[in-house]
Every structure is written in structure tokens, then in C-alpha cells.
Recover the amino acids of this structure.
């Protein structure tokens, strides 16, 4: 059977998508090439996709702190894994009651969740509250503050549960004598997997990229620094050495590829996300589109 030729619309659409994909990928390629460019060439010629001189000094500098890097990666992986599980679980458990039709006080609860999206106590009250709970200089400082539950995530999950799970399934489960917990665990969770994985991706990115919790709450125990905290500390140390008036420090700073290290640090930080995201992309796309199709 002869294949139908592509229409002009399909050809133009494919070309636009290819161009858009190239535009998205090019900054990451430029970041990688800049991180392996010799420092003097980077300063003299600027950022380029085709470096004048290659060098791995920036990565050598990072690897010299190998033990710290490995520990920071371990902390980031642990915090992200635990944080995602708690965030998705708590958000789903809060969203499910809000999706039930005849829940008493449903409007008040929905307004309470929505209100927290518009107003919050601010950084200082939040710091005082969390500090009073004794989480400072503990692993919980990287998990609990600011990221544990998001009202935005709760509203997205609630909308998905409301629009994408038929009411007949709830009614059938109730007729069979299932409790609300059984309905939530046996019906809602399996059917809501796309949106839960999508929220998990959002939460995972937030935990992986977060550095403020470590900055605020880890004042003595630097061993609990995640990758972002450690890399931020490296940049700060290099900046301090560069600006120091002490001759010994200034001489040491001159030998450090400061610009290249910043590029290498940025690439090291985003590399795990770039490797993991493609495997979860199908769930991410489905989670964002299924609800909108039925809505």
C-alpha cells in the first residue's frame, strides 16, 4: 500500500519542532564546551561551541574534592527520594478528600489550600518556626521546610482526580463495601499514576535544585550539604580567593580556572536531571494532558 505523502502542514510543523529542540539543546552544549575550554582561551575569546583550546582543569578541580562531591550527591539523592515520596503521598492524601463530591466543608477546605498559594508568613517567621522544631543541622532541614507540600500540587492532583476518574468507579467501590481508604489505595492511586509521577517530577526538581534550606538551617553540620550547597560553596570560595588582597591567596586564585569551574559546576548539577527525565517523560506528558482532554 502506497504511503500517504506528508502534507505541507506536517512538514512545517516537524521543522518547527526540530528547530525548537535544537534551540533547547544548544545552551547545554555550550555549557559543556565552556566547561572543557582552557581558562585563558575562555577569557580571551569568550564562550564558543568550538573551543580554541581544550582543558579538563575545571573538572580536575572538582574531582579534587571527590569525597565531598560523593557525599553531597548521596545527600541529594536521599533527600530527593524521601522528599518526593512524602510530597506525593501527602499531596495526594490532601487532594483526594477535596475531589469527593459531597464532602462537608469542601469549599472551605479548598479555599484554605488556595489561600496559602497567595499568602505566606515569609522567610523570618518560617525560619523561626522550623528552628523551634529542632531540625537545624539535621537531615530533616533538607526535607521539611518549604518543599514538603505544595498547594499548587494539591490543586493539580485534585483537578485530575475530579476530571479523569469516573464517579461510577467510586459508587461501585462503595456498593462493594470499600472504605474511603480502600478506594483511595485501590482505585484512585492506580488510576492517578500519571499525575502522581508528574508531581513527583516537579517535586524532585525542586528538591534537587534547592540550596536555600541548606543555607538557612545547616550552620554547623556541613556534611549534610547537598550538591547545590556544595557547588555554591565552591563558587563562593573561588570568588573570595579571587578578590582577596592577601598576596598568597591572590597567587593561588590566579591558578584556578574560575570561569570554567562555574560552567563545570553548573553542568555537574544538571547532569543527573538530564539523564533521568527522558525515562519519565511519557508519564509527565500524559499527566498534563489527560485531565485537560476530559475537562
Amino acid at each position: 500500500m502506497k504511503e500517504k505523502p506528508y502534507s505541507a502542514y506536517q512538514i512545517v510543523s516537524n521543522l518547527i519542532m526540530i528547530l525548537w529542540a535544537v534551540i533547547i539543546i544548544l545552551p547545554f552544549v555550550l555549557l559543556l564546551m565552556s566547561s572543557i575550554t582552557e581558562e585563558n582561551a575562555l577569557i580571551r575569546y569568550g564562550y564558543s561551541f568550538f573551543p580554541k583550546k581544550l582543558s579538563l582543569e575545571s573538572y580536575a578541580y572538582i574531582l579534587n574534592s571527590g569525597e565531598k562531591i560523593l557525599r553531597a550527591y548521596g545527600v541529594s539523592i536521599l533527600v530527593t527520594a524521601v522528599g518526593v515520596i512524602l510530597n506525593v503521598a501527602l499531596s495526594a492524601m490532601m487532594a483526594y478528600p477535596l475531589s469527593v463530591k459531597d464532602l462537608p466543608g469542601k469549599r472551605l477546605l479548598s479555599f484554605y489550600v488556595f489561600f496559602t498559594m497567595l499568602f505566606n508568613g515569609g522567610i523570618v517567621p518560617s525560619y523561626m518556626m522550623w528552628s523551634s522544631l529542632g531540625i537545624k543541622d539535621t537531615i530533616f532541614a533538607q526535607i521539611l521546610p518549604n518543599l514538603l507540600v505544595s498547594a499548587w500540587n494539591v490543586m493539580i492532583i485534585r483537578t485530575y482526580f475530579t476530571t479523569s476518574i469516573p464517579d461510577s468507579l467510586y459508587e461501585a467501590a462503595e456498593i462493594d463495601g470499600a472504605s474511603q481508604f480502600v478506594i483511595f489505595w485501590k482505585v484512585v492511586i492506580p488510576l492517578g499514576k500519571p499525575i502522581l509521577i508528574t508531581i513527583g517530577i516537579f517535586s524532585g526538581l525542586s528538591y534537587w535544585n534547592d540550596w536555600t534550606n541548606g543555607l538557612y538551617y545547616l550552620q554547623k553540620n556541613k556534611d549534610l550539604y547537598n550538591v547545590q550547597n556544595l557547588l555554591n560553596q565552591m563558587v563562593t570560595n573561588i570568588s573570595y580567593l579571587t578578590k582577596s588582597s592577601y598576596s598568597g591567596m591572590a597567587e593561588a586564585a590566579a591558578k584556578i580556572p574560575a570561569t570554567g569551574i562555574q560552567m563545570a559546576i553548573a553542568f555537574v548539577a544538571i547532569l543527573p536531571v538530564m539523564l533521568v527525565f527522558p525515562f519519565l517523560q511519557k508519564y509527565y506528558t500524559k499527566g498534563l494532558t489527560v485531565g485537560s482532554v476530559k475537562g
User: Anything to note?
Assistant: Confidence is low (pLDDT under 50) at residues 291-295. The radius of gyration is 25 Å.
